Amino acid sequence: MNCASHTLRTYVTLRSARVIGHTKMATGNGLASLGVEGATAAAHALSLPADAYGNDPQLEVMWAMKAYQHAEIYFNLISSVDPKFLKLTKVDDKIYSEFREAFADLNIETLDPDLLKSVEAKEKWRPFCNQFEGLVEDFNYGTLLRLDCQKDYTEENTIFATRIQFFAVEIARNREGYNSVVYNSKKQNSEAGQS
């Protein structure tokens, strides 16, 4: 059982987890409330193969929370550091060159979900993604990806993708200057607040 095969159900679960996450993280009761032993157990549980669990709803919420936290951290990162200088993996150059070779015309500024999720798109993405097995840790784990790179993660602007799809699109957005809008906006807002 692959995380990507549960895209829709997990994304729906994410919507619930996002509300829970906002509430718990805002009050400081998020994953830290699990304590050291609980957090260690959760980390171990998330590292086991998906087929060890079947359709455990609690595990789906944990995956959704992990995906949401990753998204939140990444957005804060591109808001705080000029994205053109970011290195997301040890193999960014390979990911970028292979991505642009396979998807030269893909509009990464505003993604069309069908170009990631349709049957035809999945057939094109599969060989691209699989070449990074063993090179990129957790290459096929579920991750959140923004459709419009000028906007934050919202229900309307977010889809569930594999981690390697996230890296491919976001490395390209960083290198091609599309994520600079987020950084520059945050920078201008903080400068305006200091004036």
Automatic annotation (TrEMBL):
<dbReference type="InterPro" id="IPR008476">
    <property type="entry name" value="PBDC1_metazoa/fungi"/>
</dbReference>
<dbReference type="InterPro" id="IPR021148">
    <property type="entry name" value="Polysacc_synth_dom"/>
</dbReference>
<feature type="domain" description="Polysaccharide biosynthesis">
    <location>
        <begin position="59"/>
        <end position="183"/>
    </location>
</feature>
<protein>
    <recommendedName>
        <fullName>Polysaccharide biosynthesis domain-containing protein</fullName>
    </recommendedName>
</protein>
<dbReference type="Pfam" id="PF04669">
    <property type="entry name" value="PBDC1"/>
</dbReference>
<dbReference type="InterPro" id="IPR023139">
    <property type="entry name" value="PBDC1-like_dom_sf"/>
</dbReference>
<dbReference type="GO" id="GO:0005737">
    <property type="term" value="C:cytoplasm"/>
</dbReference>
